Amino acid sequence: MVIKKLHDMGIRSEHAYIAAMASIGLTVVAWAGSLKMEPGTGLDRADRWGLFVGEWAPTFFGLGLALSHYEQQDGTLTATVHELRDQREQKTG
């Protein structure tokens, strides 16, 4: 039900995969930024920031897989955004 709702809102598996990859990059940035901007707090605090952001990646990958599975069943896996918009307009119009 949540996956269908996300799909209906226009969120596709590619979006979730991009978010997962971005969160991996953001993990490194958060760790390095915390290490530089808070030098008195030590490595432990930087590690906590990195781990906090790093925990998002598996969630986004999981959502991507679930959305991909839904898209395969729905037949929209290979459709473009414009094709999906046209399909939606035909259904409602």
From TrEMBL:
Superkingdom of origin organism: Bacteria
UniProt protein name: Uncharacterized protein
Lineage of the species this protein comes from: Bacteria, Bacillati, Actinomycetota, Actinomycetes, Kitasatosporales
Membrane spanning stretches: 16-35
Keywords: Membrane, Transmembrane, Transmembrane helix
Organism: Streptomyces neyagawaensis
